[in-house]
Sequence to fold (155 residues):
Amino acid sequence: MKSLQNCINILIVGLENQFCKIVAEELSERLQMHFTSCEGIVSYYVEERDLILQNIGLDYLKKKEKDAIKECANFSDCVLSIGYDLFKNNYKLFTNSAICYIKLKKELLSDIKNKITFSQRDEFLLSHCHVKIELEKKDKRSACKKIIENLGDIL
Fold:
């Protein structure tokens, strides 16, 4: 993994998308940086997801999603949130981001799919993130504090 010294963004990822988004929003306020949800940008790019799947196909949909994620990855001075699936398919695009994995206990995850595949997804995130933040409960303030402590020198 590359040095964190060249990072211009902070990317928050985890297995609980909504919580990661909440943490990223709080962190952006504390650091006086912009906030962007990668899922929000993808939704903007791909408004008619079901129609695209039916009429054009999955390959085109994935290309449109990747275009949206490329835009997010090129932002500057931004705290980004991204869900696991989008991250897994596009993590190589975030070369200018300090990638922070918010790790929650399996019991705290609301998405059954993430609970079932927890070990595999956790292993992937551990190997592709710069910083791992472990939390005992969903506490955005504690998460932000730990992120700031871990990224201290680049902030």
User: Anything to note?
Assistant: Strands lie at 9-14, 34-37, 78-83, 97-104, 131-135. The chain has a mean pLDDT of 88. The helical segments are 17-31, 38-45, 49-55, 58-73, 84-90, 112-116, 118-128, 140-150.
